[in-house]
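Hi R.,

Quick one: here's the Threonylcarbamoyl-AMP synthase sequence you asked about.
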Amino acid sequence: MNTQLFSADEQDTKRAAEILKAGGTVAVPTETVYGLAADAQNPTAVNKIFTAKQRPNNHPLIVHIHDIAQLSQICSSVPEVALELAEQFWPGPLTLILPKHPSMPDEVTGGMTTIGVRMPAHPVLRKILAEGDLVVAAPSANPHKQLSPTSAQQVLESLAGRIDAVVDGGFCQVGLESTIVDLGSIEAQQSPRVLRAGPITPTQLSAAIGRSVLGYQEHQQSVPGNIEQHYQPKGRLTLVTTDDIVAHISKWPGNTACLWYSDTVAAHLTTVTPPNLYSISHDKAAYAQALYRMLYEIDQVGYDHIWVEQPPLSEQWADVNDRLRRASA
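And here's the predicted structure, written out as tokens:
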């Protein structure tokens, strides 16, 4: 298969929509990471996602919409709290788990009675979806368990020849996958629950709806991203303390890269800093946006090991810590 590279102009977004409507697969930019899209109402097309990613087909996929009215096509019911959250955070990096409409293929949901839905904010993807009035399933556009891509080039490196096209919408602005909130069987008195930590925190969700939202805790529910080994670079990733890094700066091993952010490490660097130490922002949003891109760039050099300075253990950093924990598993 010859994978085409499209730009973000009107002609190419129309071509991307045509491929999707015809049952093809297109890697598309979102504000979180690049997704591998297929028509969510076409089981044959959806199965092409699993084949391209080499992903087990019992893993549910997230469906992406461009209009709130499309919820009636894919959900059997929509609780009021879902509409409240959608009003506050859509378009944006929030996925809601809702009861599945009987017409939606089991291939999308892994046979479950619920379905994950979000409305992406990236203007290029929104243009593609509106062009074809599409509802697409779109997990991250990478081979199963590997680093999620945040650029078109990264998609091409891993999926060229397996998918029909890639739309280049530039680097992703958020850089980490969406927050997932479970509303699939919620009763009026129950609290929504975060099933995957993401850019939108439980505190933000709670403030938006005026009721408690339970934060992420480890669970066995089948949702995107909930496998122990995931988001993994080629080099073996290890989370280390700031003291570990400082202790090795003067005798840094040549086959090990290090991603650091703290002022403490910066204070111990000199004019002879090893070239395999990579600085990343201590600002959480900037860190999240750059994380996958920098791990990908480190992989291109070919290090055997990647040390990552342990980020802060706070709610704001929960999504970063979740991804790094799984990347180091």
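The chain has two domains: 4-209, 236-327.

Cheers,
M.
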